[in-house]
UniProtKB/TrEMBL annotation:
InterPro entries, alphabetized: Homeodomain-like_sf, HTH-type_TetR-like_transc_reg, HTH_TetR, Tet_transcr_reg_TetR-rel_C_sf, TetR_C
Keyword DNA-binding among record annotations: yes
Lineage, top ranks: Bacteria, Bacillati, Actinomycetota, Actinomycetes, Streptosporangiales
Organism, scientific name: Actinoallomurus oryzae
Domain HTH tetR-type: 14-74
Name this protein carries in UniProt: TetR-like C-terminal domain-containing protein
DNA-binding region: 37-56
Superkingdom of this protein's organism: Bacteria
PANTHER family: HTH-TYPE TRANSCRIPTIONAL REGULATOR RUTR, TETR-FAMILY TRANSCRIPTIONAL REGULATOR
Record Pfam families: TetR_C_11, TetR_N
Keyword terms, alphabetized: DNA-binding, Transcription, Transcription regulation
Length: 207
């Protein structure tokens, strides 16, 4: 079953969707999930509230579509020719998003909502699963080049890059600068090369 608002329209319908999602993102960043209201979103987007209720139905349906759109609009993965270069690009993209006043507040609101709302959590999980799949090939290509040992879990390597950045964003409050992003990429690369993410315990790391 399709999530509300998940059918990709064209023409005027596409413009309405873009306006509504932009308004929903603004409202989330400003006021948080608890205060997200479809009528307010319709007013911000300058569209009829009937249109918003008919198409998205609920706040969670709207947030799910917003996350889908954010995944679609994300920059494609980098192709630098080296694992550390690719992972550094990934880390810098994550850092830039979380450090941005609007985007950071938006993600914070969605993550907070996901802790208590099942549908929002599911939508968030789909968003991150999609982003991880986008970056997995950079690890697979590193394995093919001989940079990493056979049996390396590509998804775990990608997760290892962003995990310390999200920790700073959500828990510690430590600075999120490019040096931090680069360090996260370097650490994930070193760990992967040492065999920390090998699925098969029999596989040998590259020394």
């Amino acid at each position: 079953m399709e999530e509300p608002g998940s059918i990709r329209p064209g023409g005027r319908t596409a413009r309405v969707r873009a306006a509504v999602l932009r308004a929903a993102g603004d409202a989330l960043a400003e006021r948080g999930f608890a205060h997200l209201d479809l009528t307010d979103v319709a007013r911000r987007a300058e569209v009829g509230k009937t249109t918003v209720y008919r198409r998205w139905g609920t706040v969670t349906g709207l947030v799910a579509d917003l996350l889908t759109d954010m995944a679609e609009q994300s920059l494609p993965r980098a192709r630098t020719g080296s694992l550390e270069g690719d992972l550094r690009a990934n880390a810098r993209l994550v850092r830039k998003t979380l450090a941005d006043p609007r985007q950071g507040a938006l993600f914070g609101a969605i993550i907070a909502a996901a802790t208590s709302d099942t549908r929002t959590a599911e939508a968030l999980h789909r968003f991150y699963a999609r982003r991880i799949r986008e970056w997995v090939p950079c690890v697979e290509e590193a394995i093919d080049r001989g940079e990493l040992p056979e049996g390396t879990d590509a998804e775990e390597v990608v997760r290892a890059v962003s995990a310390p950045l999200y920790y700073r964003f959500l828990a510690s409050g430590d600075p999120l600068d490019e040096a931090t992003a680069d360090r996260a990429a370097k650490a994930a690369t070193a760990a992967a090369r040492a065999g920390a993410y090998i699925k098969d315990e029999q596989a040998r790391p590259i020394l």
